[in-house]
Each structure stands twice: as C-alpha cells, then as structure tokens.
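Structural prep section.
Before we set up the soaks we want a predicted structure of the protein with D-malate in place, mainly to decide which crystallisation condition to try first. Input record follows.
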Amino acid sequence: MAFLNENYLKLKAGYLFPEIARRVKAFGDANPAAASRLIRCGIGDVTEPLPPAVTAALHQAVDDLGRRETFRGYGPEQGYDWLRAAIGKSDYRDRGLDVADDEIFVSDGSKCDCGAILDILGHRNRIAITDPVYPVYVDTNVMVGHTGEADTSGAYAGIHYLPCTEANGFIPEPPAEAVDVIYLCSPNNPTGAAATRAQLEAWVAYARRHGSVLLFDAAYEAYITDPAIPHSIYEIPGARECAIEFRSFSKDGGFTGTRCAFTVVPKSLMARTESGESRPLHPLWLRRMTTKFNGVSYIIQRGAAALYTPDGRRQVRELVEHYLGNASLLVAGARAAGLKVFGGVNAPYIWVAAPAGYTSWAAFDKILNEANVVITPGSGFGSKGEGYFRVSAFNSRANAEEVSRRLQALKW
Ligand code: MLT
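Run finished without errors. Recording the tokens verbatim:
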C-alpha cells in the first residue's frame, strides 16, 4: 500500500472558508426562509462584474484563438512579454521602482504562488508568520512538513508566530531572534491594517541583517488610500536583496474567478545552500514555473493586460472605490452598533472586536442566526484572532447598506 503525506493529517479541521460554507449550508437547510435573506460578507470574493475594458479584451482574445493567423497554443510559462512589460512599467518603473520585466512571473493566483514558493526554499528555515494570518501561509507550511503538531490553540510547533494585536496596531515588529522566512501581508488580510514605511523599513533592515527572505503579499495594495503607505515592498531601499512580492488581479480587477496574478522575484535576491554558498532564487523560481506550470491562458492574460489601458485603469479605480465605499458604510454601521472596529480604510476588510463574552465563533453564529449575515470568525485566522471577526466589503452597495443596518439592529 502506498504511503500518504502525513503532514496533511496535522491540518486543523477544514480550510477556513469551506468550514464556513459548511456551517452556512447547515443553517440554510434548517432555516429555508432565513436563507433567502442571507448576505455573505465572509470570504473576500468580489461581486461586481469585470471592467468593460477587460470583457472587450477577453472577447477579442477568444476571436484571436478562433483564427489560424492569430491562434496560439502554449504560451511562455512565466507570462506573455506584453503583460509582463505592462506590469513592470505601470506597477513599478513608472513609480520609480527597479523591477525588470523578467523578474515578473504571471500566474493563476497569489494563493497558489504563496504555497508554491516553498518549492524553492529549504526545509531548515525558521518560518515566521503573523497571527492572525491568511491561513494559506500556515497550512502550506504544514503540508510540506515544516511544522510539528498543532496545540489546542491551533498554533503549530516549529512556526514562530508574530502576534498582531490592538497594542501593536496589528503590525508586528521584527522578533529579537533570527528567523529565515517571514510572511508579511500589507494591507493586511484579515485585520485591514497597513504597514507604514517605517515599519517596512524595520523589516527590510532585519531581513538584510539576518539574510532572511520576506514573502510580501501585496494583493490588496490597490486599496491603500493613505498616500504615505507603500504599495510595494520595493519602495523600501534594500528590499530587492531580501523580498519576494506577491500581487493579484483578484481584488482590484475582479479576477477571483478569472484567475491571474503575478510574483516578483528579484535577480538580486539570494539564499544559501547547505554548504553555505549564496545563490540567487530567481533561476530556481523560473525552473519551478517552467516545470510545474504551463502559464495562464492567453485569453485571461489579454484580459489582465486590459487593466493597464487608460480605460482599464479608470474602471479599476471605480471598482476599488466602490468596495472602499462599502467598507466605510460597514465601519460606520459597526461603530454605531457600539462595536470596536479596525481596518476598512486602506483595505477591503473590517476587523471587529466581538463584545465581551463572545468568542469569534459565538459572534459568527449570532450574526448568522439573528442578522442572517455571514462574516468570518477571527479565530479562523489564528489564536490571536480569537475574540474578533472580519467583515468583507466585497458586495453590492445595497447589501453593504443592509448589513450596516442589520449590524446596528443586533442586540448583544
Ligand atoms: C479571504 O477571504 O481571505 C480571501 O478571499 C481568500 C483569498 O483571497 O484566497
């Protein structure tokens, strides 16, 4: 009989969102009348249609594939040159940042890349992960065997947790001890906090001092409204020597179903071999992508490239402003209900302290049963998320207004 990967047996319950879906389905089955009132502010999934510039480009790309002269089969695994060039210019060089087109790898999602990046990192790294955190960072490390078992709070042996609390504004400082790989997400999922330049400078200085690699997830950078907050880790001098950046078209271009993202691996980023030799990570990621991935489809990459046209950029801005408008309504509603609220200003998530006496799941159940709204329990993001819940602003305006009203009507 074949052996299985026992690391999977260490994983806690289900992945958070399938677990929420299971509970919501059980609620709907038991309460069919209430189910029709249900508003989902759980998973951060976009609701608004793709920008018209994108749909036009998608249609055109389909036609391209239907004609002999413009048909294409396999594309470059790391992305078509024209998309990499548009990204490199608009997201980096036009902003004065030094990122070359061939340091950009187009993929089908940041979630996939955040997990896949472990392929090119060694197994002896000390891994630091914020708590609360996007669960993918933790679970992918568990799956590849970087951890021991979880304790009763859900914390895995072998991971260095960086607590994100009200006291540190949900942005952790670098630890006193040396760690090798650090996951940072700014603007943050789930707390909605965004790291300042000074905070990122401290992390880059730490990483350079210890030879660590920062895995910087900037999937929500389009939501930054404060002009002082960096959109990219490469705004910090020295980051090219210590950081990989993950970006996504999911939350700005509405590509959660369409799937397109990219990862930047600077050629100047080095890591060491067991024998102490310093080697660049870029060729390893290129090798990984060309071996395990066949690229995002031509059609979807054409759609993503349309996000960089003048029309596309304006339409993305409108989409982001729509969701940010929802976020302010939700913040206002939760505050009017007497709740303590964070985030929602530079991020599409609001992070709410559950009233005294409520655990995250107790708040989830109450809000589901009494307001018929689905939120995400903070404890699903880590033990330091206990006592909080996350409300996603990805919704129609009418739903955001209704959720704001229902939150105010709840009696705790
Ligand atoms: C979330 O709700 O945290 C996100 O939608 C998850 C994701 O982007 O994969």
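Observations: Residues 54-309 form a domain with the Aspartate Aminotransferase; domain 2 fold (CATH 3.40.640.10).
Flagged for discussion at group meeting.
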